[in-house]
Structures are given as structure tokens and as C-alpha cells.
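go over this:
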Amino acid sequence: MVDSFEFDLDSLAAEQALYEKPLTDKQRDILRAAEELFAKKGFAGTPTAEVAREAGVTEKTLFKHFPTKADLFKRVLFPMLLKTLLPAQFQKLKKILSRPHQSFGDVFSEIARDRLSVVLQHGPRIKLVLLELMQNDHFREKFAAIWHEHVWTDLQGSVKNFQHSGQIRSDLDAASVARVQFYLLVGYVLTRAVFFRGNTPGDDDAELGKILDILKQGIAADARL
């Protein structure tokens, strides 16, 4: 596990540029091998010797391009963040949340479908990001700060707007509603991507409709339950 490395949006973008345009074919081969192995085994479980072997180069050549294992990991991980969870994705969510005259159900369903398409598109690559978020406290804290700045405030603001319009109970705490919405979205997207990859868009529409109905109506047949 990478114990600590700093990153911000600028450093992420810089690594992505180098990732997308490797300086040599050997560097490209190293990155492809590293991405696959890191996603399967994580940072700690992937020896650089194995990456070099899969890439068809010597370990000496690998270190010529990437002085440390952490440097190689950053070159693979940071672009994955940009493609799946960070700036471009934040902007998409901001647009969904800021569109006027939508119902709460429309917003919930559109965000779920958008996130699902990203997870299904990038498949095993997203595992790399999730593994590091779970295992690396420093990385998780840095990411959480960016996430709070770019998503959490807007998500709460969207809930408050729906409270003002009468679509969500005004006596509920907006942050609590936003958290429940987020839990359901993340839970559905990840479960769907892992266990039900063969589902069709029609299956997703039906299941999201059921989840949304439960979210809006609750599960109790009697309010005293």
C-alpha cells in the first residue's frame, strides 16, 4: 500500500497527460501490465518484477522509466480517478443536480444511470481506485476533501431545493436525506456492476423504480411500525 502521496487536481491532470501519451512503447507496455496487475492484486501484492515480466522488459528498464513502485502506481491510479470519480465526473453530476424543473425521482434515476455507465465502462479499472480508497487512509482523506468540495455541497443543496418545492419533507435533515440517497446509489451501482453485469437497461429501469418507490414511500405498511 502507498502510505502517503500528495495530490490535487493539477497533479492528477499532469499524470493523466503522461499516462495517455507514454514517451516510449516500453513505457506503454509497462503501464498496461501495471494497470492490470494492480487492479487484480493491489499495490502491495504486485511485485515490480512481475510487472516487468508481463511488460516484456527487465526490472532495470522498469525503474529507468519509473524510479519507484509508487511512481508507477500514481501514473496508473491518478488517470483512473479522473476518468471515474473526479473533475469531469463531478461536472456531470453538477449539471444533473442543477437542471431546473426536475422531480426528485428524475434526479435520482439520472445520477444512478450515469454512475452505472461509468462503472460498467471501466470495469476492473475501478477496482484499483476502490482498493486504494479502502486501504489507504491518507489517500481516502485527500479524495474525501475534493469530493466534499465538488459533490457533497451540491447534493445537499439539491435536497434543500426539493424540500422548498414540497417534494421532500421539510422536517427532515437535508444532510441525512442526501446520505441515504448516496448510500442507495452507490450500493445499487456497485452491486449491479459486480453481481448482475448481464442485466439490460430495462432491468435497471425497473429496479431503480422500485428503489425510488421505497425511498419515497418507505417500507412500513403502518406508520406505527
Notes: The domain at 85-217 is CATH 1.10.357.10 (Tetracycline Repressor; domain 2).
